[in-house]
Design a protein that fits this description.
single chain; 220 residues; alpha/beta; Rossmann fold; five-stranded parallel beta sheet; 10 helices
Length: 220
């Protein structure tokens, strides 16, 4: 059954209270993806991209990887919590040949109380849920990037990236793609010219760096 209990409950709450705003973050974005699937459900055997805005904004990702069939189901500026919440909508419905995740950066940005330990627990929870549905599908995690607008969070990103990398080394059919180190200047600061004006999201130069790294991991 594709419609999970949480959505039935939320629909009841919306109808009963007359809310005009999203009942939970990214509700509208996810429902738009569900509507898209209802019109033309994705074919099996594609590479499933999931996660936050660095994937959401990569609208021409298919052009970067012509040898793969990319199914991009990233949404908004989602966190790992959002990915867990909407797994029945943007992860579970498909039959991917590979799953690629970029998420975690926004968890730290959501508040100073979010520690590396908290993010690791969230990541492990999401990973276990993905594995429960897809025990044999190859999984790739793309490291959190060093965004200039979030320099203060870079030590947390570095620590979490390292712990996720070590965790995935012990898992079957799992890999870690390091984009973080390739987006730094020689002095360790984030490159400025690979980001758009908000200094958070990437321009074509930034995605070109990602392409060069990810094409080594994506299945043909």
């Amino acid at each position: 059954m594709r419609k999970p209990f949480i959505f039935s409950l939320l629909l009841f709450l919306v109808a009963g209270t007359g809310w005009s705003q999203d009942p939970i973050p990214y509700w509208k974005e996810v429902q738009a993806l569900r509507q898209k699937d209802s019109l033309a459900f994705p074919a099996p055997g594609q590479t499933l991209f999931i996660g936050s805005s660095s994937f959401t904004r990569w609208t021409d990702v298919q052009d970067y990887f012509p040898k793969q069939k990319i199914l991009n189901r990233a949404f908004g500026g989602s966190t790992l919590v959002d990915m867990i919440r909407f797994r029945y909508d943007v992860i579970y419905p498909y039959q991917p040949k590979q799953i690629v995740l970029y998420c975690g950066e926004n968890d730290f940005a959501s508040g100073d109380s979010v520690t590396v330990e908290v993010v690791m627990e969230r990541f492990k929870t999401l990973y276990s849920l993905i594995r429960a549905r897809y025990p044999l599908v190859p999984f790739l995690y793309v490291s959190m990037k060093p965004s200039p607008s979030r320099i203060r969070l870079m030590p947390k990103y570095e620590a979490a990236n390292q712990q996720i990398k070590e965790f995935l080394k012990k898992q079957k059919k799992s890999a870690f793609a390091d984009v973080y180190s390739k987006m730094l200047n020689a002095d360790g600061s984030p490159m400025d010219d690979i980001f758009i004006q908000d200094r958070l999201h990437m321009n074509a130069k930034g995605y070109a760096i990602w392409k060069k790294i990810l094409e080594k991991y994506l299945l043909p």
